């Protein structure tokens, strides 16, 4: 589905005329003065530019739709914040920063997910070992004590494990 929306977006972009240097020079002062029409045209006229910047991040594990959305949002902010200098460099820097932050956020989420998975795996091992030792299933409180954590954390790990099983249909 993501690829379908991305392809539709690419098809729509073919019908949009990019801003050339002359048009950009004419629109920038108007946009800086608050002219919404000029701002809208600057954004629209630089969507292909934003797409080109976003494409540099395409092999980083982030959906193309998300990359384009982030680049377009950064382009919009660049148009709103621009006051002087080279607009294309300003906008590119804004987009690169936003895309790098998106990538860092994704990496952080993946790392957190891996840490949670590791803790769940430890919980499963401890639970299995305690069941063998006790001849019954360990209570949440016993598991928490053995793992050096709180009962609430154990319950959350169990809930996360059950939710993951529901998502993956196991």
Could you give a quick summary of the protein structure above?
The chain contains eight helices and no strands.
Descriptive tags:
single chain, about 170 residues, mainly alpha, about 80% helix, elongated
Plain-language structure description:
The protein has 170 residues and is mostly helical. The chain has helices at 2-13, 21-32, 36-45, 47-55, 64-81, 87-134, 140-147, 151-168. Helix 2 (21-32) packs antiparallel against helix 3, helix 4 crosses helix 5 (64-81) and helix 6 (87-134) packs across helix 8. The longest helix is centred in the middle third of the chain and has 48 residues, at 87-134.
Largest sheet: none
Total of helices: 8
Along the chain, the helix and strand elements come as HHHHHHHH
Query: What's the number of extended β-strand segments?
Result: 0
* Termini Cα gap: 24 Å
Provide mean pLDDT, rounded: 89
- Estimate the helix proportion, in percent: over 70%
Low-confidence stretches: none
- Rg calculated over all Cα atoms: 25 Å
Overall 3D geometry? elongated
How much of the sequence is in beta strands? under 5%
Helix-and-strand structural type: mainly alpha
